[in-house]
Design brief:
Order of helices and strands of chain A: EEEEHEHHEEEEHEHEHEHEHEHEEHHHH
Number of helices of chain A: 13
Helix content of chain A: 40-55%
Number of strands of chain A: 16
Radius of gyration of chain A: 20 Å
CATH superfamily of the largest domain in chain A: Queuine tRNA-ribosyltransferase-like
Oligomer: homodimer
Largest sheet of chain A: 8 strands, parallel
Number of domains of chain A: 2
Shape of chain A: globular
Largest interface: A-B, 38 and 38 residues
CATH class of the largest domain in chain A: Alpha Beta
Structural class of chain A: alpha/beta
Chain lengths: ~375, ~375
């Protein structure tokens, strides 16, 4: 894989670039819909392509549990199993460690998970995780990290960070020995909670290992927004300027624009799709809950300026009816809309960056968006 | 509306025709997917158009309950509410009377339903039903009928039939006075259980009222297959040859072909969509349950000869995985396939009728289909 910065914004730390992978090129800033189990919930591949999605991220560990490596391997890898011809990122599954019902135990050597499917215990070492990710195939894979919960004590975050760093090293060694000529990229993940010294020392040690790019993990997990932005502000400038910066799990319209301004290149989040399944849709004026009775006879589209299939074909009243009746089409139409909205926002952000108009674009959008009247 | 028979099969009683409505022409034999609540479950309008669906049927009474006439009226009618530009049939909702949890009471004057949504009791007279159906808009509406359950005693079927006939007359009177220049068609529904005399006298009385077409109701509701075919064999020849014959609620591949041979023009059924949501898919070799573990690493398409989106893009293994994980895409892919399979079967049946090859076509299909090895 290769990453080129094509334009640096004159006013913010934002940058516009091109990420080249074995499955094509994608422009950055990039938002990736999440295909945890090998599918973006309610979407088919044509839907995704129509929204301009050229990169998805799946969860390697969950796919290892279901349907299992054997099945994905016999299909010829995850790309073929999903019939997705574009870019695929793979996440280790380490994030599941903050789910108490999922984590069994973790020590320096490995993490033990209880399968959410059958309760069986699986031991995941960094080497095993790399083996799984390389077997699944993909364009960019992430090192196994240990993500402490929001609000964890400093000493716990510090202990957890030691694991993250040790595992990153072991992932890198395994990867260098086994990736061969697969041209897949390996990203390290920066942890350290909201602590400047821990984030700083993490970056120092990770960059010594020279990963192809860097994930910023452990944010947007319940901490205050001000803590998240403070952390991004002291974290991002320490990352190597020529490598991809991937802010993991962030995906609200306002967070995307604010983080792009700080120099983030890549995002993923279940927010647009999960919100859609809970009737929350994005509009230029902010989020609204389209399942509310207010909208039951509203004949206007979800968002007046949106060009998505849902907005061009259906009214708020119809979508409200479908959601109330739990008709499967309801959550598909809201998901189509939310993904289109975010993909279009990021596309416009890229254009604004190239035209050195990003700050104005961001402020304009946020002024209208944050005046949410719902 | 207008109905023309364009070709009569030389070997069977099958016929090929053209039904012209205010929302376009549809060729018969015709299979209509069911959009009970104003949506064919899991499908959008583009999906339906791609399967060649040019006519749907909705349930007037259920739409009257949810979202309600006011909302559909303010959208400009059901066509506009759904944004469906093609043909719409409307069913009265009388069939719900065989659901004990739904029916409160019925007498000669009206039927009282308990709303499945909020338990509120609604009284439905034939006049009220026509008023609802005309207010919703649509191309063809059905008279309110009383459908006795399968296996009902002769005397009960007889009593029920008296209501069906009285209501048909009242529907026709109301319709003639109120339909105005809406060009909508009204079909009467033939009831009478599996009794030749009752079906016969029903047809005699209904045809005296001169409906635009005739539904055949009260079949495929749990009676033996042999009873259904025996009933069709003595019922269909009594119906006027120049009017549409619509066998309600029938939709398995084998029943479609066998009933087309007996002279049925129009079908509707939730079978293909409901089966799809329960992992049952059609193949040329019969139905299979694609959710079974047998298919977990089967890399072949659902049906080798099928040209639907699912079969052209995804493997049985992938669909099996999606269904097991209850991923929303799973039931959408199986629904797309089942609808395509049925629509294509009926399209081929029409061609075979025109070419006087229907009997051979039917036998070929059934030979392979009924050798179901699942």
């Amino acid at each position: 894989m290769e990453f080129k910065i094509l334009h640096e914004d004159s006013c913010t730390s934002g940058r516009q670039g091109l990420l080249s992978t074995p499955h094509g090129e994608v422009e950055t800033p990039l938002f990736m819909p999440v295909a945890t189990m090998g599918t973006v919930k309610t979407m088919d591949n044509v839907d995704l392509e129509k929204q301009g999605a050229k990169a998805l991220i799946s969860n390697a560990f969950l796919l290892y549990l279901r349907p299992g490596l054997d099945i994905i391997h016999s299909a010829g890898g995850l790309h073929k199993f999903m019939n997705w011809p574009h870019v695929l990122f793979k996440y280790s599954g380490g994030f599941q460690m903050i789910r108490r019902d999922f984590l069994k135990s973790a020590d320096m050597n490995s993490v033990k998970f209880k399968s959410p499917f059958d309760g069986q215990v699986h031991e995941l070492t960094p080497e095993k995780n790399m083996e799984i990710q390389l077997a699944l195939g993909g364009d960019i894979i992430m090192a196994l990290d240990d993500c402490p919960p929001a609000g964890a004590a400093y000493s716990n975050v510090q202990a957890s960070l030691e694991r993250t760093l040790d595992w990153a090293k072991r992932c890198k060694i395994y990867f260098d020995e086994h990736a061969g000529d697969k041209k897949v990229g390996l990203f390290g993940i920066v942890q350290g909670g909201i602590h400047q010294d821990l984030r700083g020392s993490c970056i120092e040690k990770l960059t010594n290992l020279d990963f192809n790019g860097y994930g910023i993990g452990g944010l947007s997990i319940g901490e205050a927004k001000s803590d998240m932005y403070r952390t991004l502000e002291f974290t991002i400038p320490k990352l190597p300027a020529d490598k991809v910066r991937y802010l993991m799990g962030v995906g609200s319209p306002e967070d995307l624009l604010k983080s792009i301004a700080l120099g983030v290149d890549v995002f993923d989040s279940v927010f647009p799709t999960r919100n859609a399944r809970h009737s929350t849709i994005y509009t230029a004026q902010g989020k609204i809950n389209i399942g509310r009775s207010t909208y039951r006879s509203d004949q206007s589209p979800l968002d007046k300026e949106c060009k998505c299939y849902t907005c061009e074909n259906h009214s708020r009243a119809y979508v409200n009816h479908l959601l109330k009746q739990k008709e499967p089409l309801g959550i598909r139409l809201t998901t189509l809309h939310n993904l289109h909205f975010l993909m279009e926002l990021v596309r416009q952000a890229r254009t604004a960056l190239v035209e050195d108009e990003f700050e104005r674009f961001k402020e304009c959008f946020l002024d209208e968006y944050e005046s949410d009247r719902d």
